[in-house]
Design goal:
4% helix; 119 residues
Length: 119
């Protein structure tokens, strides 16, 4: 299992970023996927889930209405469109298979991409 995130960076409040997660080493198209946010000194925070077909998405209340998860199974890639960014969105965004997140199997999570929202 290999997951590699990209697209993070520094952005001002109100700005947008689009994160990508490229998967390899497993059959991406049959797994529900998760975005999780990691911050120093805090427990991992679940951000979003997307089902294997991309038809159903779920979001934490803190990002609902601002973030949109999607995926392209032909490219083994999922995305997180982040709009109207807030300082509290700052963190390391990692992707994982939903089951690996649920089981806290962090060795299967991606290394993450850093998002910093600051004026």
């Amino acid at each position: 299992v290999q997951l590699v995130e990209s697209g993070g960076g520094m952005e001002q409040p109100g700005g947008s970023l689009r994160l990508s997660c490229v998967a390899s080493g497993f059959s991406f198209e049959i797994f529900d996927m998760t975005w999780v946010r990691l911050s120093p000194g805090k427990e991992p925070e679940w951000v979003s889930n997307i089902d294997r077909d991309g038809y159903r998405t779920y979001y934490a209340d803190s990002v609902k209405g601002r973030f949109t998860a999607s995926r392209d199974n032909a490219k083994n890639t999922m995305y997180l469109q982040m709009n109207n960014l807030k300082p509290e969105d700052t963190g390391l965004y990692s992707c994982a298979r939903a089951g690996d997140y649920a089981e806290d199997a962090r060795h299967y999570w991606g290394p993450g991409t850093q998002v910093t929202v600051s004026a």
